TrEMBL record:
Protein name, per record: tRNA-2-methylthio-N(6)-dimethylallyladenosine synthase
Organism classification: Bacteria, Pseudomonadati, Pseudomonadota, Alphaproteobacteria, Sphingomonadales
Function, in words: Catalyzes the methylthiolation of N6-(dimethylallyl)adenosine (i(6)A), leading to the formation of 2-methylthio-N6-(dimethylallyl)adenosine (ms(2)i(6)A) at position 37 in tRNAs that read codons beginning with uridine.
Main EC class the enzyme belongs to: transferase
Organism in which the protein naturally occurs: Stakelama saccharophila
Stored SUPFAM superfamilies: Radical SAM enzymes
Record: residues binding [4Fe-4S] cluster: C137, C141, C144
Cofactor: [4Fe-4S] cluster
Domain of life: Bacteria
Pfam families on file: Radical_SAM, UPF0004
Catalytic reaction annotation: N(6)-dimethylallyladenosine(37) in tRNA + (sulfur carrier)-SH + AH2 + 2 S-adenosyl-L-methionine = 2-methylsulfanyl-N(6)-dimethylallyladenosine(37) in tRNA + (sulfur carrier)-H + 5'-deoxyadenosine + L-methionine + A + S-adenosyl-L-homocysteine + 2 H(+)
Residue ranges occupied by any TRAM domain in the UniProt entry: 354-415
Cofactor note as given: Binds 2 [4Fe-4S] clusters. One cluster is coordinated with 3 cysteines and an exchangeable S-adenosyl-L-methionine.
Protein backbone atom coordinates (compact mmCIF):
# COMPACT_ATOMS: atom_id res chain seq x y z
CA UNK A 1 0.00 0.00 0.00
CA UNK A 2 2.91 2.34 0.61
CA UNK A 3 4.07 1.71 -2.97
CA UNK A 4 0.61 2.73 -4.18
CA UNK A 5 0.54 5.82 -1.93
CA UNK A 6 4.06 6.74 -3.08
CA UNK A 7 3.01 6.57 -6.75
CA UNK A 8 0.00 8.77 -6.05
CA UNK A 9 2.14 11.36 -4.22
CA UNK A 10 4.62 11.38 -7.10
CA UNK A 11 1.74 11.97 -9.55
CA UNK A 12 0.48 14.85 -7.40
CA UNK A 13 3.88 16.53 -7.29
CA UNK A 14 4.39 15.95 -11.04
CA UNK A 15 1.29 18.11 -11.55
CA UNK A 16 3.17 20.85 -9.67
CA UNK A 17 5.97 20.58 -12.24
CA UNK A 18 8.36 18.47 -10.17
CA UNK A 19 10.34 15.72 -11.88
CA UNK A 20 11.97 12.67 -10.26
CA UNK A 21 15.58 13.10 -9.06
CA UNK A 22 18.20 11.21 -7.05
CA UNK A 23 18.01 11.92 -3.31
CA UNK A 24 21.35 13.80 -3.31
CA UNK A 25 20.15 16.17 -6.05
CA UNK A 26 16.51 16.57 -5.06
CA UNK A 27 14.88 19.77 -3.84
CA UNK A 28 12.18 17.78 -2.05
CA UNK A 29 12.43 14.30 -0.55
CA UNK A 30 9.25 12.57 0.64
CA UNK A 31 9.89 9.68 3.01
CA UNK A 32 6.84 7.44 2.94
CA UNK A 33 7.04 5.57 6.20
CA UNK A 34 5.87 2.41 7.94
CA UNK A 35 5.12 2.11 11.68
CA UNK A 36 4.26 -1.58 11.85
CA UNK A 37 7.46 -2.65 13.64
CA UNK A 38 10.01 -0.66 15.60
CA UNK A 39 12.74 -1.32 13.04
CA UNK A 40 10.76 0.35 10.25
CA UNK A 41 10.12 3.40 12.43
CA UNK A 42 13.74 3.81 13.48
CA UNK A 43 14.82 3.64 9.85
CA UNK A 44 13.01 6.92 9.19
CA UNK A 45 15.28 8.79 11.58
CA UNK A 46 18.44 7.25 10.17
CA UNK A 47 17.25 8.07 6.62
CA UNK A 48 16.70 11.70 7.62
CA UNK A 49 20.23 11.79 9.06
CA UNK A 50 21.63 10.37 5.81
CA UNK A 51 19.80 12.95 3.67
CA UNK A 52 21.40 15.73 5.70
CA UNK A 53 24.89 14.34 5.08
CA UNK A 54 24.87 15.31 1.40
CA UNK A 55 25.86 18.90 2.16
CA UNK A 56 22.86 20.63 0.65
CA UNK A 57 19.77 19.64 2.56
CA UNK A 58 16.58 19.15 0.55
CA UNK A 59 13.15 19.98 1.91
CA UNK A 60 12.13 16.83 3.80
CA UNK A 61 8.54 15.61 4.05
CA UNK A 62 7.65 12.63 6.23
CA UNK A 63 4.49 10.86 5.03
CA UNK A 64 2.80 7.62 6.03
CA UNK A 65 2.12 5.91 9.34
CA UNK A 66 5.14 7.21 11.28
CA UNK A 67 3.96 10.73 10.40
CA UNK A 68 0.48 9.82 11.65
CA UNK A 69 1.70 8.26 14.89
CA UNK A 70 4.41 10.73 15.86
CA UNK A 71 3.14 13.99 14.33
CA UNK A 72 4.91 17.00 15.81
CA UNK A 73 7.38 14.77 17.62
CA UNK A 74 9.12 14.22 14.24
CA UNK A 75 9.48 17.98 13.76
CA UNK A 76 10.89 18.31 17.28
CA UNK A 77 13.22 15.34 17.00
CA UNK A 78 14.37 15.67 13.39
CA UNK A 79 13.40 19.19 12.29
CA UNK A 80 11.70 18.07 9.07
CA UNK A 81 9.69 20.53 6.96
CA UNK A 82 6.44 18.65 6.30
CA UNK A 83 4.56 15.92 8.20
CA UNK A 84 1.59 14.34 6.43
CA UNK A 85 -0.51 11.33 7.45
CA UNK A 86 -1.73 8.55 5.14
CA UNK A 87 -5.28 9.97 4.91
CA UNK A 88 -4.15 13.54 4.18
CA UNK A 89 -1.51 13.25 1.47
CA UNK A 90 -3.73 14.83 -1.18
CA UNK A 91 -2.75 18.06 0.64
CA UNK A 92 0.97 17.52 0.01
CA UNK A 93 1.33 20.31 -2.63
CA UNK A 94 -0.20 22.87 -0.24
CA UNK A 95 1.94 21.65 2.68
CA UNK A 96 5.10 21.92 0.57
CA UNK A 97 4.13 25.46 -0.46
CA UNK A 98 3.45 26.38 3.19
CA UNK A 99 6.81 24.98 4.28
CA UNK A 100 8.55 26.90 1.48
CA UNK A 101 7.05 30.13 2.82
CA UNK A 102 8.19 29.29 6.33
CA UNK A 103 4.82 28.16 7.76
CA UNK A 104 4.42 25.04 9.90
CA UNK A 105 3.21 22.27 7.63
CA UNK A 106 1.62 19.38 9.49
CA UNK A 107 -1.53 17.48 8.51
CA UNK A 108 -2.51 14.27 10.25
CA UNK A 109 -6.27 14.68 9.88
CA UNK A 110 -8.45 11.75 8.94
CA UNK A 111 -11.09 13.64 6.95
CA UNK A 112 -14.51 12.12 6.29
CA UNK A 113 -14.18 12.95 2.59
CA UNK A 114 -11.67 10.52 1.20
CA UNK A 115 -8.47 11.79 -0.37
CA UNK A 116 -9.00 9.72 -3.50
CA UNK A 117 -11.32 12.22 -5.22
CA UNK A 118 -8.62 14.89 -4.94
CA UNK A 119 -5.90 12.84 -6.66
CA UNK A 120 -4.99 13.24 -10.34
CA UNK A 121 -5.98 10.64 -12.96
CA UNK A 122 -3.61 7.69 -13.52
CA UNK A 123 -1.46 8.26 -16.61
CA UNK A 124 1.37 5.74 -16.95
CA UNK A 125 1.74 2.64 -14.84
CA UNK A 126 3.63 -0.64 -14.96
CA UNK A 127 1.97 -3.83 -16.33
CA UNK A 128 1.39 -4.96 -12.75
CA UNK A 129 -0.39 -2.13 -10.93
CA UNK A 130 -1.73 -1.62 -7.42
CA UNK A 131 -5.17 -0.25 -6.65
CA UNK A 132 -6.23 0.61 -3.09
CA UNK A 133 -9.89 -0.30 -2.53
CA UNK A 134 -10.08 -0.41 1.26
CA UNK A 135 -8.14 1.24 4.06
CA UNK A 136 -8.00 1.05 7.80
CA UNK A 137 -8.90 -1.65 10.26
CA UNK A 138 -11.49 -2.23 12.99
CA UNK A 139 -10.07 -5.54 14.19
CA UNK A 140 -7.66 -4.32 16.86
CA UNK A 141 -5.30 -7.26 17.11
CA UNK A 142 -3.53 -6.56 20.39
CA UNK A 143 -0.05 -6.19 18.85
CA UNK A 144 -0.96 -3.96 15.92
CA UNK A 145 -0.80 -0.19 15.29
CA UNK A 146 -2.74 -0.19 12.02
CA UNK A 147 -6.15 0.69 13.54
CA UNK A 148 -4.51 3.75 15.12
CA UNK A 149 -2.39 4.93 12.18
CA UNK A 150 -4.68 4.14 9.25
CA UNK A 151 -7.95 4.70 11.07
CA UNK A 152 -11.30 2.89 10.82
CA UNK A 153 -12.19 0.50 8.00
CA UNK A 154 -13.34 2.44 4.95
CA UNK A 155 -14.20 1.04 1.51
CA UNK A 156 -13.99 3.07 -1.68
CA UNK A 157 -17.23 3.11 -3.69
CA UNK A 158 -17.76 0.40 -6.33
CA UNK A 159 -17.84 2.82 -9.27
CA UNK A 160 -14.73 4.72 -8.14
CA UNK A 161 -12.75 1.47 -8.03
CA UNK A 162 -13.98 0.31 -11.44
CA UNK A 163 -13.19 3.72 -12.97
CA UNK A 164 -9.66 3.69 -11.56
CA UNK A 165 -9.17 0.10 -12.76
CA UNK A 166 -10.18 1.11 -16.30
CA UNK A 167 -7.82 4.10 -16.13
CA UNK A 168 -5.02 1.79 -15.01
CA UNK A 169 -5.66 -0.56 -17.94
CA UNK A 170 -5.67 2.41 -20.34
CA UNK A 171 -2.38 3.49 -18.74
CA UNK A 172 -0.75 0.11 -19.43
CA UNK A 173 -1.76 -2.24 -16.59
CA UNK A 174 -2.48 -5.87 -17.48
CA UNK A 175 -2.59 -7.07 -13.88
CA UNK A 176 -4.25 -5.27 -10.98
CA UNK A 177 -3.66 -6.10 -7.34
CA UNK A 178 -6.47 -4.80 -5.16
CA UNK A 179 -5.11 -3.48 -1.89
CA UNK A 180 -6.45 -3.03 1.61
CA UNK A 181 -5.32 -3.50 5.20
CA UNK A 182 -8.19 -6.01 5.19
CA UNK A 183 -9.01 -6.05 1.53
CA UNK A 184 -11.60 -8.80 1.82
CA UNK A 185 -13.57 -6.61 4.26
CA UNK A 186 -14.26 -4.35 1.26
CA UNK A 187 -17.95 -3.67 1.04
CA UNK A 188 -19.85 -1.73 -1.62
CA UNK A 189 -22.51 0.88 -0.86
CA UNK A 190 -25.19 -1.81 -1.37
CA UNK A 191 -23.41 -4.39 0.79
CA UNK A 192 -21.82 -6.34 -2.04
CA UNK A 193 -18.45 -7.87 -1.18
CA UNK A 194 -15.02 -8.11 -2.78
CA UNK A 195 -16.16 -11.04 -4.94
CA UNK A 196 -18.66 -8.74 -6.72
CA UNK A 197 -15.90 -6.25 -7.39
CA UNK A 198 -13.65 -9.00 -8.76
CA UNK A 199 -16.42 -10.28 -11.03
CA UNK A 200 -16.91 -6.76 -12.44
CA UNK A 201 -13.16 -6.30 -12.98
CA UNK A 202 -13.16 -9.63 -14.80
CA UNK A 203 -15.23 -7.93 -17.53
CA UNK A 204 -12.66 -5.22 -18.27
CA UNK A 205 -11.15 -5.91 -21.65
CA UNK A 206 -7.36 -5.73 -21.67
CA UNK A 207 -7.09 -6.68 -18.00
CA UNK A 208 -5.58 -10.15 -17.82
CA UNK A 209 -5.01 -10.79 -14.12
CA UNK A 210 -6.60 -9.88 -10.80
CA UNK A 211 -5.00 -10.32 -7.36
CA UNK A 212 -5.82 -8.99 -3.91
CA UNK A 213 -3.95 -8.51 -0.66
CA UNK A 214 -3.98 -8.60 2.34
CA UNK A 215 -6.90 -10.52 3.66
CA UNK A 216 -8.21 -11.55 7.06
CA UNK A 217 -9.47 -15.09 7.76
CA UNK A 218 -12.76 -13.80 9.22
CA UNK A 219 -13.65 -11.94 6.01
CA UNK A 220 -13.07 -14.95 3.74
CA UNK A 221 -16.69 -15.28 2.54
CA UNK A 222 -18.03 -18.24 0.57
CA UNK A 223 -18.62 -15.82 -2.34
CA UNK A 224 -14.95 -14.93 -2.44
CA UNK A 225 -13.89 -18.57 -2.14
CA UNK A 226 -16.26 -19.45 -5.00
CA UNK A 227 -14.75 -16.66 -7.12
CA UNK A 228 -11.40 -18.46 -6.87
CA UNK A 229 -12.98 -21.43 -8.64
CA UNK A 230 -14.97 -19.44 -11.17
CA UNK A 231 -13.24 -16.22 -12.21
CA UNK A 232 -10.53 -17.07 -14.69
CA UNK A 233 -8.64 -13.80 -14.29
CA UNK A 234 -8.41 -14.21 -10.51
CA UNK A 235 -4.95 -15.68 -9.97
CA UNK A 236 -4.46 -18.86 -7.90
CA UNK A 237 -2.78 -17.14 -4.98
CA UNK A 238 -4.03 -16.29 -1.51
CA UNK A 239 -2.19 -14.34 1.17
CA UNK A 240 -4.05 -15.15 4.38
CA UNK A 241 -2.11 -14.25 7.55
CA UNK A 242 -2.54 -16.60 10.52
CA UNK A 243 0.14 -15.21 12.94
CA UNK A 244 0.24 -18.29 15.21
CA UNK A 245 -0.78 -21.93 15.24
CA UNK A 246 -1.78 -21.90 18.91
CA UNK A 247 -5.28 -21.04 20.13
CA UNK A 248 -4.24 -19.44 23.42
CA UNK A 249 -1.82 -17.12 21.61
CA UNK A 250 -4.40 -16.35 18.91
CA UNK A 251 -6.88 -15.40 21.63
CA UNK A 252 -4.33 -13.17 23.39
CA UNK A 253 -3.69 -11.56 20.01
CA UNK A 254 -7.45 -10.95 19.65
CA UNK A 255 -7.34 -12.69 16.28
CA UNK A 256 -10.96 -13.96 16.44
CA UNK A 257 -10.08 -17.09 14.50
CA UNK A 258 -8.64 -20.37 15.76
CA UNK A 259 -6.07 -22.72 14.33
CA UNK A 260 -8.84 -25.00 13.21
CA UNK A 261 -11.11 -22.38 11.71
CA UNK A 262 -8.11 -21.09 9.71
CA UNK A 263 -7.28 -24.58 8.43
CA UNK A 264 -10.90 -25.20 7.50
CA UNK A 265 -10.95 -22.02 5.40
CA UNK A 266 -7.86 -23.21 3.55
CA UNK A 267 -9.56 -26.58 2.89
CA UNK A 268 -12.51 -24.78 1.30
CA UNK A 269 -10.24 -22.56 -0.80
CA UNK A 270 -8.29 -25.58 -1.99
CA UNK A 271 -11.52 -27.33 -2.86
CA UNK A 272 -12.52 -24.34 -5.03
CA UNK A 273 -9.07 -23.94 -6.60
CA UNK A 274 -6.87 -27.01 -6.13
CA UNK A 275 -3.69 -25.38 -7.48
CA UNK A 276 -3.92 -22.33 -5.20
CA UNK A 277 -0.61 -21.05 -3.80
CA UNK A 278 -0.95 -20.14 -0.12
CA UNK A 279 0.90 -17.40 1.68
CA UNK A 280 0.71 -16.03 5.22
CA UNK A 281 2.18 -13.85 7.95
CA UNK A 282 3.58 -15.13 11.25
CA UNK A 283 4.66 -13.48 14.49
CA UNK A 284 7.05 -15.33 16.82
CA UNK A 285 7.65 -14.40 20.43
CA UNK A 286 4.34 -12.80 21.30
CA UNK A 287 4.38 -12.01 25.07
CA UNK A 288 4.08 -15.24 27.05
CA UNK A 289 4.46 -17.58 24.05
CA UNK A 290 5.82 -20.86 25.42
CA UNK A 291 8.02 -23.37 23.60
CA UNK A 292 5.06 -25.71 23.21
CA UNK A 293 2.88 -22.91 21.82
CA UNK A 294 5.58 -22.05 19.28
CA UNK A 295 5.75 -25.73 18.30
CA UNK A 296 2.06 -25.43 17.37
CA UNK A 297 3.01 -22.76 14.84
CA UNK A 298 5.63 -25.08 13.34
CA UNK A 299 3.12 -27.92 13.13
CA UNK A 300 0.62 -25.64 11.40
CA UNK A 301 3.31 -24.76 8.86
CA UNK A 302 4.01 -28.46 8.32
CA UNK A 303 0.33 -29.00 7.72
CA UNK A 304 -0.31 -26.09 5.31
CA UNK A 305 2.88 -26.13 3.18
CA UNK A 306 2.83 -22.46 2.17
CA UNK A 307 4.16 -21.41 -1.23
CA UNK A 308 5.68 -18.38 0.50
CA UNK A 309 5.22 -16.46 3.74
CA UNK A 310 6.40 -13.53 5.83
CA UNK A 311 7.55 -14.02 9.42
CA UNK A 312 8.45 -11.48 12.07
CA UNK A 313 9.71 -11.20 15.62
CA UNK A 314 7.10 -9.63 17.82
CA UNK A 315 7.78 -5.90 18.17
CA UNK A 316 6.06 -4.02 21.01
CA UNK A 317 4.28 -0.96 19.64
CA UNK A 318 3.48 2.04 21.85
CA UNK A 319 -0.21 2.36 22.62
CA UNK A 320 -1.17 -1.24 21.80
CA UNK A 321 -2.53 -3.60 24.49
CA UNK A 322 0.18 -6.23 23.91
CA UNK A 323 2.90 -3.69 24.71
CA UNK A 324 1.54 -3.68 28.30
CA UNK A 325 1.41 -7.49 28.62
CA UNK A 326 3.68 -9.52 30.89
CA UNK A 327 5.91 -12.25 29.57
CA UNK A 328 8.21 -10.38 27.16
CA UNK A 329 10.62 -12.90 25.68
CA UNK A 330 14.42 -12.54 25.50
CA UNK A 331 15.80 -11.55 22.09
CA UNK A 332 17.76 -14.82 21.85
CA UNK A 333 14.58 -16.89 22.20
CA UNK A 334 12.84 -14.84 19.50
CA UNK A 335 15.87 -15.16 17.20
CA UNK A 336 15.97 -18.90 17.59
CA UNK A 337 12.22 -19.28 16.98
CA UNK A 338 12.33 -17.05 13.92
CA UNK A 339 15.22 -19.07 12.48
CA UNK A 340 13.42 -22.36 12.98
CA UNK A 341 10.19 -20.99 11.50
CA UNK A 342 11.98 -19.50 8.51
CA UNK A 343 13.84 -22.74 7.86
CA UNK A 344 10.49 -24.55 7.65
CA UNK A 345 8.94 -21.84 5.45
CA UNK A 346 11.98 -21.81 3.14
CA UNK A 347 11.80 -25.58 2.83
CA UNK A 348 8.16 -25.33 1.75
CA UNK A 349 8.80 -22.46 -0.66
CA UNK A 350 11.61 -24.41 -2.34
CA UNK A 351 9.37 -27.48 -2.58
CA UNK A 352 6.52 -25.44 -4.07
CA UNK A 353 8.89 -23.93 -6.64
CA UNK A 354 10.33 -27.34 -7.50
CA UNK A 355 6.79 -28.62 -8.06
CA UNK A 356 6.28 -26.00 -10.76
CA UNK A 357 9.05 -27.47 -12.94
CA UNK A 358 7.52 -29.14 -15.99
CA UNK A 359 4.36 -27.01 -15.89
CA UNK A 360 3.48 -24.65 -18.73
CA UNK A 361 1.96 -21.37 -17.60
CA UNK A 362 1.46 -17.72 -18.52
CA UNK A 363 4.14 -15.25 -17.47
CA UNK A 364 3.44 -11.52 -17.46
CA UNK A 365 6.67 -9.78 -18.47
CA UNK A 366 7.41 -6.96 -15.98
CA UNK A 367 11.04 -5.93 -16.48
CA UNK A 368 14.44 -6.61 -17.98
CA UNK A 369 16.70 -9.23 -16.37
CA UNK A 370 20.41 -8.91 -15.61
CA UNK A 371 21.61 -10.75 -18.73
CA UNK A 372 21.24 -9.38 -22.29
CA UNK A 373 17.98 -10.72 -23.78
CA UNK A 374 16.71 -11.88 -20.39
CA UNK A 375 13.32 -10.74 -19.11
CA UNK A 376 11.60 -11.20 -15.76
CA UNK A 377 7.93 -11.79 -15.11
CA UNK A 378 5.52 -13.49 -12.74
CA UNK A 379 3.83 -16.86 -12.87
CA UNK A 380 0.14 -17.15 -11.91
CA UNK A 381 1.38 -18.31 -8.46
CA UNK A 382 3.36 -15.06 -7.98
CA UNK A 383 6.77 -16.66 -8.52
CA UNK A 384 9.42 -14.64 -10.36
CA UNK A 385 10.30 -16.29 -13.68
CA UNK A 386 13.33 -15.42 -15.81
CA UNK A 387 13.55 -16.35 -19.47
CA UNK A 388 15.37 -15.41 -22.68
CA UNK A 389 12.89 -13.71 -25.01
CA UNK A 390 12.45 -10.71 -27.24
CA UNK A 391 8.99 -10.17 -25.73
CA UNK A 392 8.34 -6.65 -24.43
CA UNK A 393 7.38 -5.44 -20.97
CA UNK A 394 3.62 -6.00 -20.65
CA UNK A 395 3.51 -9.05 -22.95
CA UNK A 396 1.97 -12.27 -21.69
CA UNK A 397 4.16 -15.20 -22.68
CA UNK A 398 3.36 -18.90 -22.42
CA UNK A 399 6.35 -20.47 -20.72
CA UNK A 400 7.47 -23.94 -19.82
CA UNK A 401 9.11 -23.91 -16.41
CA UNK A 402 12.42 -25.77 -16.65
CA UNK A 403 14.26 -24.94 -13.42
CA UNK A 404 13.56 -23.79 -9.88
CA UNK A 405 15.60 -22.04 -7.21
CA UNK A 406 14.59 -20.94 -3.72
CA UNK A 407 13.34 -17.54 -4.93
CA UNK A 408 12.72 -17.81 -8.67
CA UNK A 409 12.07 -20.06 -11.64
CA UNK A 410 13.67 -20.42 -15.06
CA UNK A 411 11.46 -20.80 -18.12
CA UNK A 412 11.49 -21.33 -21.88
CA UNK A 413 9.14 -19.36 -24.11
CA UNK A 414 6.45 -21.31 -25.97
CA UNK A 415 3.77 -18.85 -27.22
CA UNK A 416 3.36 -15.08 -27.03
CA UNK A 417 0.36 -12.78 -26.86
CA UNK A 418 1.33 -9.14 -27.43
CA UNK A 419 0.09 -6.49 -25.00
N1 LIG B 1 -4.34 -6.88 8.13
C1 LIG B 1 -3.42 -7.91 7.93
C2 LIG B 1 -1.99 -7.59 8.30
C3 LIG B 1 -1.44 -6.22 8.21
S1 LIG B 1 0.09 -5.93 9.05
C4 LIG B 1 -3.87 -9.10 8.78
O1 LIG B 1 -4.45 -8.95 9.83
O2 LIG B 1 -3.59 -10.20 8.41
C5 LIG B 1 1.17 -7.05 8.27
C6 LIG B 1 1.79 -8.05 9.19
O3 LIG B 1 2.72 -7.42 10.07
C7 LIG B 1 0.84 -8.76 10.12
O4 LIG B 1 0.17 -9.79 9.49
C8 LIG B 1 1.75 -9.25 11.22
O5 LIG B 1 2.28 -10.53 10.92
C9 LIG B 1 2.88 -8.24 11.21
N2 LIG B 1 2.83 -7.39 12.40
C10 LIG B 1 1.89 -6.47 12.73
N3 LIG B 1 2.17 -5.90 13.92
C11 LIG B 1 3.31 -6.48 14.38
C12 LIG B 1 4.10 -6.34 15.56
N4 LIG B 1 3.74 -5.50 16.52
N5 LIG B 1 5.21 -7.10 15.69
C13 LIG B 1 5.57 -7.97 14.70
N6 LIG B 1 4.86 -8.16 13.59
C14 LIG B 1 3.74 -7.42 13.40
FE1 LIG C 1 -3.45 -5.19 12.32
FE2 LIG C 1 -4.40 -6.88 10.48
FE3 LIG C 1 -5.08 -7.20 13.02
FE4 LIG C 1 -6.03 -5.11 11.64
S1 LIG C 1 -6.46 -7.31 11.30
S2 LIG C 1 -5.24 -5.06 13.72
S3 LIG C 1 -4.26 -4.65 10.34
S4 LIG C 1 -3.00 -7.40 12.11
Amino acid sequence: MNVYDGERMAELMAEQGLTPAEANEADLVVLNTCHIREKATEKVYSDIGRLRKHGRTPMIAVAGCVAQAEGEEIVRRAGVDVVVGPQAYHNLPKLVADAASGKAALDTDMPLDSKFGALPARKRVSPSAFLTVQEGCDKFCTYCVVPYTRGAEVSRPFAAVIDEAKALVDAGAREITLLGQNVNAWSGEDGRGLDALIRELDRIEGLARIRYTTSHPNDMTQGLIDAHGEVEKLMPFLHLPVQSGNDRVLKAMNRSHTRDSYLRILDRVREARPDIALSGDFIVGFPGETDAEFEDTLSLVDQVRHAQAFSFKYSPRPGTPAAEMDGALPAAVMDERLQRLQAALNRDQAAFNADTVGRTCDVLIERKGKLPGQMLGKSPWLQSVHLMTDAAIGDMVTVEIVSAGPNSLGGVERVRAAA
